[in-house]
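Replying to the earlier thread about multi-chain prediction with a worked example.

Input:
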Amino acid sequence: MSLWLRISAVLTLIALALMVWSVIVPTPLPVMLAMTVGQGIGTAAFAIFGWVVFKDLTRKRRERRDSLQNIAASRDSLQNIALTKDEP
Amino acid sequence: MGFDLLAAITIGFAAISAVLVLWYLLRRPLLTRATKVVLLFGIGLLPIGVATTGNYAGFEATKQRRFCGSCHVMTPYATDSGDPKSTTLAARHGRNAMFGDENCYTCHADYGMFGTVKTKLGGLRHVYHYVLTYHDMPLEEARKTIHIRQPFKNETCMHCHSTYTPGFGAVPDHVSALERVRTGAVSCASAGCHGPAHPFTKDLKEVE
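Result:
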């Protein structure tokens, strides 16, 4: 996950460089590159970031759910043990 | 380069974004909620701001005469129309404050609802032709080869010169050709009228 996030960060820096270049040197090549490649790379970087965050959130939610299920299961088993001991 | 506010905002957003992203790359913090928020700004919101202001600045830059003249084949056109001593139609319009540094765009842009879009698409066609045909062509050869794609529309002239003002009607030639001018049957830039805006690109016979 962190590798993808680093890729996303590097892509962002490339996109920013292209877009700033077009502002500093407003000639056809930089302007066209910024509006096509620059924005494409920037969009890809943001999409990767969104995907990483989504995966991280779903992983954490799954872990929390699993943990709650484990707690419930251990509580049930403890109750069963208690009931068994109470039996004559 | 004319350093305007929009360019400054674009560069400012980009600088902040770069700092946030570099902080992540160098420090490599855990992906906590705080890190996500920082990266949301660094990778998402600020670059979107850079793209928005940068696009606008880019579109404005494409209207500048300097931009049009940055392809070598357009240099004589841009130089002449910005020359304060030139007497060509293009230069006389360029000296008008309403045209100024955007005189190429003001005259060659399409008007109407989709005028800007059509003009930008036309600009892409220019780039296509330049890259494939004119990039390595000597200026003297290009001067003879390059021509306007469609006849210059009178509508463009009439955007400012409405043909309804008393001053326009005071010119006898305008009165005699009025309907033909309005319908486009006679071009304002024809040899018998005001002549081509860039006469140095025409053969003498054509101008006469």
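The radius of gyration of chain B is 23 Å.

Feel free to reuse this layout for your own posts.
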